[in-house]
Amino acid sequence: MHTPNESPSHKPLKVLVIGAGIAGLSAAIALGKQGHEVVILEKSQFAKETGAAIHLPPNCTALLKWMDVDPTTFGGTLLREIHRYDSKGDLIFRNDFSDVRGKWQASVFREHVSPSTPAPHPTGKSCVRWLFPMDKLKFFDSKKDPGVFLEWAAEDRRVVAYPCANNTIFNLCAFMPSSEAAVPEKGDWQASTETETLVNAFKNFSEGVQEIILQAKDAKCWGLYDMGDLTTWSKGCAALLGDAAHPFQPYMGQGGAMAIEDAVCIATLLSSGTTVEKVSSRLKLYERARRPRVEEVLRYTRMNGRDENDESKGARMSPSDMVHFMNVLFSHNEIEHCSKLLAAESST
Question: Where is the secretion signal located (predicted)?
Fold first, then answer.
C-alpha cells in the first residue's frame, strides 16, 4: 500500500494499492469507505482458480461486516464444532462452539520498505488441497451435524477438512513431509499432485480417510515456507500489509484474517480528513498497533504446526489449548483497538 504525496490537504487521499490479494482488496474497500480515492495495480489476469476455500474467523467477519461484506451471501458456512481424530479414526477431542459463540464478534515493494528482508525458508512440510462433495462422505452425516471442522492426525502428518459452499463441499488439506510430496518449484502452488502420492502418504490412516483420498480430484500441492520478522513495515508514505509483511502458514487459519485486520487498521488510522502530512506517522502507528498481535498469532500458528508428540521442537498445542486461544483471538476488534490508539495519539 502506497500513499503518494501529491494529495492536497483537506481532500481525500489518493491511495495506490499494489496487489489485489486479500490484503490489497480489503485495504481498497476499507479506504474507499473512508472516502479516499483508491487505485489497485495487479499483474495477474485471474485466469485460473487460485484457492478453494478460506477460513473467516469472527475477528475477521466483524471487520468484513463493517466493510459491508457478508460471507453468508457467497456460501459462507458457520463452523459449529471441531473434532480431532487419531490416524485410526478414533475421536480424541470434540468441542461444541455454541456455548462460547456469544462471546465472539460478528513484491519487490517489500525490499523497498524493508531492505535486506529475510528470505522465506522451507519448513520441510507441504500441503495438498482438494474439494470433496459432502454427500459422498459416507461416514459423516452432514445434514445431522453441519458445520464441523475435522482433523485426523498422526506423528508427522495430518488431514483437515472444513465445510464451505453452504455446507455442501469439504475443503480438504493434507499436511505431509515434503520429502514424500511432489513439491513444485517455489512459488508455484497450482501444481497438480498424483492421487498415488497421497495414498502412499496416508496408507496407515483409517478407511474413512483413505476413502476421501482415493476420490481426490485435481489436488494441488505446494511447499510451506516461513520467514523471519521484517525490520519495519512502513517507510514514509508506504506500508506493507498481509503476506508482504508477515506470511502465515495455514495451521491456525488466520493468514487471511490478519491481512484483513491490517487493511482495516490502516483505514481506521487514515480516517476521512487525514492530511498527507500525517500519513507517515499514522503508518508508523499502524505498525505499532499490529505487530504484537501478529507476532502472537504467528507464534501460536507455528506451535500448532508442530508434529504430534515431537518434543524436540516443543509440543504441539493440545486441542483444548487451541480452543482457548481461539476464544482469546476471536474476541479482538481491530477497529476498536486502532480507534483507541488513534485517540490516545491525538491527545498527546
Answer: none
